[in-house]
Every structure is written in structure tokens, then in C-alpha cells.
Design brief:
With about 300 residues, the protein is α/β, with parallel strands linked by helices. Helices cover about 45% and strands about 15% of the residues. It is built from 13 helices and eight strands.
């Protein structure tokens, strides 16, 4: 079993905001913000390959590892229904997404870049708004189909991004435990540092760890600006469970981002500098990338700052 970042103590980069990059920089059409339909065409697959390759070159440049996230954020049942995918087609899409990341993994291995394959899972609903809440049991039933597909495709672990209330994240952890695949849970936070569902981050982590006997490998934060959560880290035991950050470039709240028609890319250099205090605040921080509004410039700025510390 391949050691995960919290086990091998290696620093990994991962990609930035794939959806906003494709929408605003590359001007692709993404119905329902889904990227996995790009796998249907040779042009779409090559676009995805080139996207990953940009970050892989960065990992090679800085001599660090890379987490390759499958392009499956929307590849679950409800979103598949909206996009015209039945269960068989959806399972195949998850498999092909992992297959494509495995191609990039081979390229990375050829130049000595250590890699991990993560199966990307998104929320059942809107990532910013915890509407139509499920119980943890309902969430487990919903998400287990995709977790099984990703596990069968051979990912090293699955990562659930933009979790905005505890029960859905807990259900994913339970489902992953049932399938027997390792799991990472990543929460989005409001400007006050709380989940959109109202829970505090330490409350969420402690509740899931208590229920699952610490089953998640580690936790992450994504889709929030560093200024939204920098005040949270008080040195408590729970901070040792944070293993990754994928922040937004914009300081705007989720409601403002939802209403925005233009990309707020922020200042990449400032984005990089704002990550440096987290290296002391979060003893187990191992994975850093970006989320909405970020691209290679933002992720490179982080690792440029890190290199200067060595």
C-alpha cells in the first residue's frame, strides 16, 4: 500500500482551480461545472493531459511530489443524471478519469517525480450552499457508488472536496471505510472560518473522528481564502489532522463568488506569502494546491516561497 502524504512526510503539490481555469482562461463550456465529459473526445482528453502536465513540470522543477486528482468532482449519480450519464456510463467515466491520471503518473515517474492518485469526489449538491441535507447514512448510500468505481479503478485514496456540512462528509468516511479505501475529507469555510452548515472546523473533525475511529487519513481545507481560516489554528490537537490546503485566490465570500461573472484571480505573490505561516501552524501540512480562481501562477508562488525558506 502506497504511503500517503501524512505517512511519508513528503511535500506534494497538487493542481489549482481546474473549473475556473477551464471556464475563464481556456473558455471551455462546462455544463453544470463538470469536467469529466471532456474525457469523451480526443481534444478534451488532450486538454486535460496538458493541464496536469503544467503542474507536473512544476513538481519536477521543485523536486517535490505531486497528487494527481481525477477529474471526477461531478461524476456522481445526481450530476450524471443531469448530464445524461446512466450508471454504466458514469462508472466508465470514473475509470477513464483515473486511467488518464495514470498516464500522467507514468510521465512523472519517468522524470523522478513521486506521485499519488486521488479519486476526486464532490458534494451531492452545491458546494457553497448546504441545501437538501442528507443524514450521514443517506450520504453513505449516495456516495458509495462513486467510491467503489474509483477504488476499482485503482486510486491510492479518495478525496471529498468542498464538504459544507458534517453529515455528508461523515457519510463519505463511512462509505470509504465500508469499501476499504483510504479517504481524505476537505471542508469549505465561510469568511468567519465556519462551515456553511454552521459547524466549526474543529467540531467537524472531532465528530467524524469520533464516529469513524479516526478513519480519514487527514483533513483539508479548500475553496476559502487564507484570510478566512488563518485565525483558526490555536495549536489544539485537531490541527495535527490538517494535511492539505487548496485555497481560493479571492477574498470574496461564497455568495459574492456565486454572483460574480468575472474571475477574481487575486494576487499570486500575496497568495504564496500567505501560506508560509501555515507551515508552522499546521505540523502535518503536506499537500498544497489551489481552488477557485487559482492556476499555475498561484501554486508556483507558494512553492517559490517555500524554496526560499530552505
Amino acid at each position: 500500500m502506497t504511503p500517503l502524504p501524512n505517512e511519508n512526510h513528503r511535500i506534494y503539490l497538487t493542481d489549482g482551480g481546474v473549473i475556473t481555469t477551464f471556464l475563464y482562461r481556456d473558455h471551455l463550456e462546462l455544463p453544470h461545472l463538470a469536467t469529466f465529459p471532456l474525457l469523451r473526445t480526443s481534444e478534451g482528453r488532450e486538454h486535460l493531459r496538458n493541464y496536469y502536465r503544467g503542474y507536473a513540470r512544476m513538481a519536477e522543477q521543485y523536486g517535490i511530489g505531486m497528487v494527481l486528482e481525477s477529474t471526477t468532482f461531478r461524476a456522481s449519480r445526481d450530476w450524471g443524471d443531469l448530464l445524461g450519464y446512466d450508471a454504466t456510463a458514469l462508472a466508465l467515466a470514473n475509470f477513464r478519469a483515473v486511467e488518464l491520471t495514470r498516464e500522467i503518473q507514468a510521465e512523472c515517474n519517468a522524470v523522478g517525480v513521486p506521485t499519488l492518485l486521488s479519486g476526486c469526489i464532490g458534494p451531492r449538491g452545491d458546494g457553497y450552499v448546504p441545501g437538501n441535507r442528507m443524514t450521514a447514512d443517506q450520504a453513505a448510500v449516495y456516495h458509495i457508488e462513486q467510491i467503489e468505481s474509483l477504488a476499482e479503478a485503482g486510486v491510492d485514496y479518495v478525496t471529498a472536496f468542498t464538504m459544507n456540512y458534517v453529515d455528508e462528509a461523515l457519510g463519505i468516511a463511512r462509505a470509504a471505510k465500508r469499501v476499504g479505501t483510504r479517504v481524505v475529507l476537505s471542508f469549505t469555510l465561510e469568511t468567519d472560518g465556519r462551515l456553511p452548515g454552521g459547524e466549526s472546523l474543529p467540531e467537524a473533525i472531532e465528530a467524524i473522528d469520533r464516529d469513524t475511529e479516526d478513519y480519514p487519513a487527514y483533513y483539508m481545507i479548500n475553496c476559502a481564502h487564507p484570510t478566512h481560516f488563518a485565525h483558526l489554528f490555536d495549536g489544539g490537537d485537531w490541527t495535527w489532522r490538517i494535511g492539505g490546503l487548496r485555497a481560493n485566490s479571492s477574498t470574496k465570500c461564497h455568495a459574492e463568488l456565486n454572483a460574480s461573472t468575472e474571475l477574481d484571480a487575486g494576487d499570486p505573490a500575496d497568495f504564496g506569502r500567505r501560506h508560509m505561516p501555515f507551515m508552522d501552524m499546521l505540523p502535518q501540512l503536506r499537500v498544497i494546491g489551489g481552488c477557485c480562481g487559482t492556476d499555475e501562477r498561484h501554486v508556483e508562488a507558494v512553492f517559490h516561497e517555500l524554496a526560499a525558506l530552505v
